[in-house]
Amino acid sequence: xxxxxxxxxxxxxxxxxxxxxxxxxxxxxxxxxxxxxxxxxxxxxxxxxxxxxxxxxxxxxxxxxxxxxxxxxxxxxxxxxxxxxxxxxxxxxxxxxxxxxxx
Length: 103
Known about the structure:
By secondary structure, this protein is mainly beta. The chain folds into two domains: 1-33, no CATH class; 50-102, no CATH class. The chain is built from one helix and five strands; from the N terminus they run ββββαβ. The protein has a three-stranded antiparallel β-sheet. The chain has a two-stranded antiparallel sheet with strand order 1-2. The longest helix is centred in the C-terminal third of the chain and has 7 residues, at 71-77. The radius of gyration is 15 Å and the shape is globular. The two termini are 29 Å apart. The model has no long low-confidence stretch (mean pLDDT 77). Residues 3-95 form the Peptidase S1 domain. This is OVCH1 protein. InterPro entries: Peptidase_S1_PA (IPR009003), Peptidase_S1_PA_chymotrypsin (IPR043504), Trypsin_dom (IPR001254). One of its GO terms (biological process) is proteolysis.
């Protein structure tokens, strides 16, 4: 299904340098039709994040299963991608199927 974005709101704390708060909310011009391939995202409450949890990473039409890791591990492995450091608002993950980092 293809839709146009009616409005979008970028997090006011987003930083281009560090990628901190890299999230946006988009309202589509027409609602999606739910199916086996299109369904709502279930968001955890703020107390459910823990290391070694399996998570779903989605964005711009792609979906991948990732395993959450401790942010300190990303600090070591992804330092050059995030010169501002890995912040408490970031989630460190590794792709389950291919083993690549998703800092």
